[in-house]
Design a protein that fits this description.
11 helices; single chain; eight-stranded parallel sheet; globular; alpha/beta; 11% strand
């Protein structure tokens, strides 16, 4: 190589370094919007305000992020902690409202359908959503809010039904796996193995995205969630067949107060999972949760390499493609 060509190659590589360091995520694959109806239902003490697609787009633009997935909060109407009149009708309305929000920015937003998987209407709503262009890409399940308990065989059987139905319709599944914290439901290695061995095989052909690295956030200081993540990450590392389409998002897990030990553990688990299966996400831009720009900056504090950050930033799940 001539001296001139060597100089040009070196100059190009030096110019490329800042771009890599400053790379922003291709998408925010865990976002929520909140309708007036939902705010009214959960009440003012929840500290949640109305958030719509325009607000999300403003937040994305401030972070240099192009795309986002809006995960419907319709499952909240089915929480056993509250009684809602005309529950299923309101679940439908919330899912349809979320789809209408995403439809305002079709090149940038997708909507996922939400519901409590234990409800009698769960499969009905899944099939309805699958028939609607704005909702057919996937479903959002929140096992904590729905009080799904993986120690109860009937709950596992029902979850398998829902996973199988989503698989048959080609719908991705985003699952908040963390069991109900307020009720201190069991959550640890046993529950992780039940999910891995009994539930995941029911949806072998679609993306299953475990939210919050199997926790809930904000933060990573949740020993039960760490135990679940350990089981799933180790299964990924050894190439367990049921993890073939398993992905994880990091929404609200890397916060500003993350300790060095927690950051090191998170980085290790991400490497076990494989950086190609880790998605950036923010979670709801409400209350103490970090907004997209700040959340990405907090995530960038993990002890990962620039190449690893760049790979995570460019990841786009198959359900978007």
């Amino acid at each position: 190589m001539s001296a001139r060509k060597l100089f040009r190659a070196l100059a190009f590589s030096l110019l490329a370094l800042p771009a890599m360091a400053d790379a922003q995520p291709a998408g925010d694959f865990h976002q929520h919007v909140f309708s007036k109806a939902t705010i009214s239902m959960i009440g003012p003490d929840a500290g949640v305000t109305r958030l719509d697609a325009k607000d999300v787009i403003t937040l994305l633009d401030s972070a240099g992020i192009r795309k986002a997935v809006l995960l419907s909060t319709a499952y909240m109407y089915g929480s056993p902690a509250r009684q809602v009149e005309d529950e299923y009708a309101r679940v439908r309305l919330e899912n349809d409202w979320t789809a209408a929000q995403a439809a305002q920015f079709p090149e940038r937003l997708l909507a996922f359908c939400g519901f409590n998987p234990l409800k009698d209407y769960a499969l009905v709503e899944l099939h309805r959503c699958a028939s609607i262009p704005g909702l057919r890409r996937g479903i959002k399940l929140h096992l904590g809010n729905s009080d799904v308990q993986l120690d109860i065989p009937a709950h596992v059987a029902r979850l398998r039904e829902v996973f199988a139905a989503a698989n048959a319709k080609g719908m991705a599944i985003v699952v908040h796996l963390r069991a109900n914290i307020g009720k201190r439901r069991p959550y640890g290695e046993r529950q992780a193995r039940i999910f891995l061995e009994q539930v995941l095989p029911a949806a072998p052909d679609v993306v299953v995205q475990v939210a919050h690295l199997a926790g809930s956030g904000p933060g990573f200081e949740d020993p039960p969630a760490r135990a679940v993540l350990g089981v799933l990450a180790e299964a990924m590392a050894r190439g367990a067949p049921q993890t073939r389409n398993l992905w994880f998002d990091v929404a609200s897990i890397a916060d500003r107060d993350l300790s060095p030990d927690a950051a090191a553990l998170m980085a290790w688990r991400i490497r076990q999972i494989g950086v190609g299966r880790v998605l950036y996400g923010t979670d709801s831009a409400q209350g103490d949760n970090l907004r997209p720009a700040d959340a990405w900056a907090a995530f960038r504090r993990l002890p990962l390499t620039e190449d690893e950050f760049a790979r995570i930033a460019e990841n786009v799940p198959p359900y978007w493609r």
